[in-house]
Here is the input.
Amino acid sequence: MTDQNTHLPALKKRARKAPLGLSALAVLIAVICLLPMLAVAIAAFSGGTETVSHLLSTVLPRYAGNTALLVALVSIGTFCLGVGAAWLVTMTRFPGVRFFEIALVLPLAFPAYVLAYAYTYILDHPGIVQSTLRDVMGWGPRDYWFPEVRSLGGAAMMLILVLYPYVYLLARASFLQQSGTTFLAARALGSSAWAAFFRVSLPLARPAIAGGVLLAVMETIADFGTVAYFGVQTFATGIYTSWFSLADRGGAAQLALCLLSFALLLAMLERIQRGRAKYYDPSRQSQDKVQLQLKGTQAALAIGLCLIPVLFGCVLPIVVLFSMGLGSEQDLLSARYLGFIQNSLILAGIAAVVTVSAAVAVGFFQRLRPGPFSNGAAYIARLGYAVPGGVVAVGLLVPFAAFDNALDAWMRSTFDISTGLLITGSIWLLILAYMVRFLAAALGAYEGGQAMVHANMDAASRSLGQTPFGTLRRVHLPILTPSLLTALLIVFVDVMKELPATLIMRPFNYDTLAVQAYRLASDERLEGAAVPSLVIVALGLLPVILICRQVGRRA
Here is the structure.
């Protein structure tokens, strides 16, 4: 027994030594994640002051103003919907509350641009809503006013409907962790239920709510499909326009740098808020929460408030998309559509495997060699979730296009052979962009499962003669299988929905379902766009169902 205790520190110390290959791989992954940000900064500063002056005097104020207003509207909307719904299903009881606990998460499966196609089809001037209004009232086209769906307000509404579940999930988790003692104390001091909510429950949940709102904001500034279809000029659309329509690489890089700076600022705020959040073991709470029983008008109002986001964020879009798809001439079984599906599945499958493998490499390196070096590599790897897809695309295309051109010039001058675009024109650079963009999600799932692997398991495995890779293969991976499968599924679906990076970086004539939906919608063929959109939504429901199951288990 004494000998075992003497050797245990040495075993733990030996277990912390990371193999050189793993260290090099983790550092390479971190460098790849950092490369787009560095490339955008270098390209932006090398673009010259003339481009900056031109942007400042023409489009930059409009891009900044529209982006800021969109962020403000989405922040307010997701806060009100997410917090209100979370408080109702957590702190009150009314008919159907168990159903709404799960159903309120479902809109997360929808890309915002899919909702934009559905609501444009029914709310635009020739749509069923305005057509029925004109027929019933006998009005002409200019005899009435109707809100314009293709506007900044319309884009904000689409984003609010699909992003409020971020706030809902985090706020609900925070409300569930709060002790009932504080709420009861506020009621005992004479506060009403609403006053106790605003004075006690809401301040305690503020860090979690702020984190959810910031996540929604980061998704908002990264959105391209919705704002592009509605004609709202933001930084995301400006990057695409500068790169393709105007062939202004310097302008695109400078716009990307502006958007990147804002995104990184939001990422810092989100990390600060997450660091301030405090979590307590519910088993140690001195008093269970008292849930208010709603009856009559109050119950009906609660049902209506919870039904609105589910109805308009999930049920109605699915019904509209089905009706649009049935009236279209798109055939999912045609060779053309099978090609779109095949391309989407290949990209999403390879990207999911590569991204989750990278997450395992970075996470295992951090476990074997904890310290500033590994923590820094993991932190850089997580930054991708704050970088919009258009910024990642520009940041990777600039250096790799320069490398391809330099290599081609050298091969021409030396061997009289043209190599062309070896990297820039391949799907592998697009795969790298997906990895950078979604590595944080895979790391989060991996680290959540890794918490179940005690450090003594590593020491015991090494004492039995296992190498670090043997410990990973025989101990860690079997335990982490559910978490890794979840990470694979989440990254797979995120890649299926991703639009800006795919539009910019895809190889020639290599289209996906998201690109096909965007192209058809851009040509005002909304019925056709419904078909690939429905496939994307169906796949997006898979990880959302997993999230719903976790929510149900914690309730």
